[in-house]
Design goal:
The complex is a heterotrimer of chains A (about 170), B (about 260) and C (about 280).
Chain A lengths: L3 H26 L10 E8 L10 E4 L2 E12 L4 E9 L9 E6 L6 E6 L12 E2 L1 E3 L4 H27 L6
Parallel strand pairs in A: 1-7, 2-6, 5-8
Antiparallel strand pairs in A: 1-4, 2-3, 3-4, 5-6
Chain B lengths: L1 H31 L1 H6 L1 H38 L8 H39 L2 H7 L4 H40 L3 H11 L2 H28 L5 H30 L3
Helix pairs in contact in B: 3-4, 3-6, 4-6, 4-7, 4-8, 4-9, 6-8, 8-9
Chain C lengths: L15 E10 L2 E11 L4 E6 L5 H8 L7 E6 L2 E2 L5 H8 L2 E4 L11 H12 L4 H14 L15 H12 L6 E5 L7 H17 L3 E5 L3 H7 L2 E6 L2 E6 L1 H5 L4 H7 L16 H5 L6
Parallel strand pairs in C: 3-8, 3-9, 6-7, 7-8
Antiparallel strand pairs in C: 1-2, 1-4, 4-5, 9-10
């Protein structure tokens, strides 16, 4: 019992060291400092295709995070995806802003990019963003590419046939 | 002959079940006595000293070297894809999510767990625990519960120290040694490590591992044969059983925490 | 010892009583049909063959094990149905000395003796100090108070354990082989201490021992246990004068008698190949 006093000091040191380590992890290694606890307001946006967008994805404007995606549901009355977004109360966007689903980097995560419109009135809680651009779907892109390539070949082939094959037509 | 085999199988199953039952009983008894361990905090803090402070050196040195190796190996692979600046993120996530809690638990089992088992086992062999019972002092309350609480407190702190020292070790290799930009190192890390999802889950893991390792060590000491061979077998079993338990729990916890 | 019974004073029950006790581990029965009474103030010696059940009896008294049949009574109270709190209250009235002392190796001699006082009383430190030193003085080790158990001899460790056993001034002290492995001087000291403390503190003592010479000198009653039963009970003189062959063999330390010298084996001729036609 008597020499516990010197143990106490070392235990206190150990606990402080552990707490400091955890604090270091939270602040220097983690994103505690950049965590946003500000108040938010909720708006909605409808997309034909959300691609790989997930809840908690960032909502950025001019590359700066201004909000987070809260939830994504399929609305079977309009057959579109309804995305609920929480925007920071400190930022205001005009009612006719555009929401696009973009990809960070070449193969990175998808996020929503907000481009401001020109309306005088701003979005308030409960509003719906009318202008949206869906995510790029790779198959459609390839299909478009193939179609345009086929169209190019078609025009060059038809101009080639009139000059070359008139004699051999039965 | 088949009857013989079946009856031996039945007896073995019954023994296993009764061992598991005894273990579960001890666990519940320890939980019930945690309140006493909190009230007689002097006993618990002494145990935090023996289990935590005495493990600091091995945890610190191991964390440093694990950080070195992670940064080195990570750099070799990442720079082939031009992503060498993400090495900080790699080191931090590996440590905070997995290596910190798991390696610390394994080292803790080897250092603090075996000393717990040996101590309790030797007390049992020397009739000290029986003497305490005959003096109307509950050994579970006086001896085991403070050690249980001490281990639970010490483990998450040790895991935090391991991860923090490992990240510093990774920084030492990446920035001064290899020459990666310090700003990119830290900003990539901060961009990818989430306080609640990564650091928080890591702390939860290390807490669960602390409970597991400390309990296994105490159980093996408490139930060992009171002979020198019994004590040595029990210390070996502590390391084996708690290591396997930690790795199995790690899989379960990772699946639960990091699935999206 | 035998005082005139005054009918106006109600008779106090014997401090320790075993009624028709049977007890064992698993299928093995170690004790069967044991009846024993111990009055206050007496020193009882339990002797008998190794594995005969002496230590089991001691364990029954502290309720470290429970009988499968019969009753173990302490001061008239059956120990078996007691809750943990009630059992601990009974155990506080007992002291137990283990074979090798069972001192707490991480505490000093002083702290070992102070342990029961610290755990069970809220006495202030100066008072605890005085009590501990008094107990250590009674066993002659007041000067060794700051030594650790690893620094003292076996005999001294047992004396410290005795001081610890009497720290709370119990009513009964149980001794498990207190003389085993001691040199003649320590043996004499230990025997003297047991008798003197018993008389000075008004204790009752139960000694499990193999050492007949020293024990017979200090015991009031002796009980011999063999094959799970009490085969002889009485004063030391009565046992020494007994005509029972088992008691005679034991007390006289004869190698062969009811306890056979040769363990059961095949006939000599078979093992050495002589006698049978080959």
């Amino acid at each position: 019992m008597e020499n516990s006093n010197k143990h106490d000091a070392w235990v206190g040191f150990f606990v402080l060291l552990g707490a400091a380590a955890l604090l270091f992890l939270a602040l220097k290694a983690g994103n505690l400092l950049s965590l946003n606890f500000d108040a938010t307001y909720t708006v909605q946006a409808r997309f034909d295709n959300i691609g790989g967008l997930k809840p908690h994805a960032a909502v950025k404007s001019a590359g700066v995070v201004v909000g987070r995606v809260e939830s994504i549901v399929f609305d079977d009355k309009i057959f579109q995806a309804r995305v609920t977004i929480n925007l920071n109360k400190t930022v205001a966007f005009p009612k006719d802003s555009t929401a696009k689903i973009l990809t960070a980097g070449l193969l990175g995560e998808q996020y929503i990019g907000l481009e401001p419109g020109a309306d005088e009135k701003n979005l308030v809680a409960g509003d719906t963003i009318k202008q949206t651009q869906s995510a790029v779907v790779l198959e459609n892109l390839i299909g478009q590419f193939l179609n345009s390539k086929a169209a190019d070949m078609g025009t060059s082939a038809s101009s080639g046939t009139t000059t070359g094959n008139s004699g051999s037509k039965p | 002959m088949i009857i013989n085999f079946l009856s031996r199988l039945g007896a073995a199953t019954r023994n296993e079940l009764s061992e598991i039952g005894a273990g579960a009983t001890l666990f519940l008894q320890l939980l019930a006595r945690l309140g006493t361990a909190l009230r007689r905090f002097r006993l618990t803090s002494d145990q935090v000293f023996f289990l935590g402070n005495h493990s600091l050196s091995i945890i610190g040195v191991s964390g440093l070297f694990v950080g070195f190796v992670l940064a080195l190996q990570g750099y070799y692979t990442l720079q082939r894809y031009g992503s060498a600046e993400a090495v900080g993120l790699l080191v931090a996530l590996s440590l905070v999510r997995e290596l910190g809690p798991v390696v610390t638990a394994l080292l803790f089992a080897g250092r603090a767990g075996t000393s717990l088992t040996a101590e309790i086992g030797l007390m049992k062999a020397g009739e000290q625990l029986t003497a305490m019972e005959m003096m109307a002092v509950d050994p579970l309350r006086r001896v085991l519960a403070p050690r249980f609480l001490g281990g639970i407190i010490a483990m998450p702190l040790l895991a935090g120290v391991f991860s923090a020292v490992g990240i510093i070790g990774g920084w030492l290799v990446a920035v001064p040694l290899i020459g990666i930009d310090a700003g990119a190192f830290w900003s990539q890390m901060q961009g990818g490590v989430d306080v609640f999802a990564d650091v928080g889950n890591g702390v939860v893991k290390s807490f669960v591992f602390g409970v597991t390792v400390t309990f296994v060590a105490l159980l093996q000491g408490w139930s060992c044969k009171p002979t020198p061979e019994g004590v040595s077998q029990a210390t070996t079993r502590t390391v084996v059983v708690s290591s396997l338990a930690v790795l199995a729990l790690d899989f379960v916890l990772t699946a639960m925490m990091f699935s999206i | 010892m035998n005082q005139k019974k005054d009918p106006s004073i109600p008779a106090t029950p014997p401090l320790i009583e075993l009624r028709d006790v049977r007890c064992g581990y698993g299928d093995r029965t170690i004790l069967d049909g044991v009846n024993l009474r111990l009055e206050r103030g007496q020193v009882l010696a339990l002797i008998g063959t190794s594995g005969g059940g002496k230590t089991t009896l001691l364990r029954l008294l502290g309720r470290q094990i429970r009988p499968s049949h019969g009753q173990v009574l302490f001061d008239g109270q059956d120990l078996a149905p007691l809750s943990q709190d009630a059992l601990y209250a009974v155990r506080r009235r007992m002291g137990m000395l283990f074979q090798f002392g069972a001192l707490f190796t991480d505490l000093s001699v002083f702290e070992n003796v102070a342990f029961p006082l610290r755990e069970h009383t809220k006495l202030p430190e100066p008072m605890i100090r005085d009590l501990v030193l008094m107990k250590l003085n009674a066993v002659g080790l007041r000067g060794s108070r700051d030594l650790m158990p690893s620094e003292i001899s076996g005999g001294m460790a047992r004396r410290v354990a005795l001081a610890r056993a009497i720290a709370l001034d119990p009513e009964v002290v149980l001794y498990d082989e207190p003389f085993a492995g001691l040199d003649p001087i320590s043996l004499g000291v230990a025997a003297r201490l047991i008798r003197d403390l018993n008389d000075a503190l008004g204790l009752t003592s139960v000694i499990v021992t193999h050492d007949l010479h020293e024990t017979f000198a200090i015991a009031d009653r002796v009980a011999m246990i063999a094959n799970g039963r009490i085969v002889a009970q009485g004063t030391p003189a009565e046992l020494q004068a007994s005509t029972d062959p088992l008691v005679q063999q034991f007390v006289g330390a004869k190698p062969d008698g009811p306890v056979r010298f040769h363990q059961p084996a095949l006939p000599v001729g078979e093992d050495f190949g002589v006698g049978a036609a080959s």
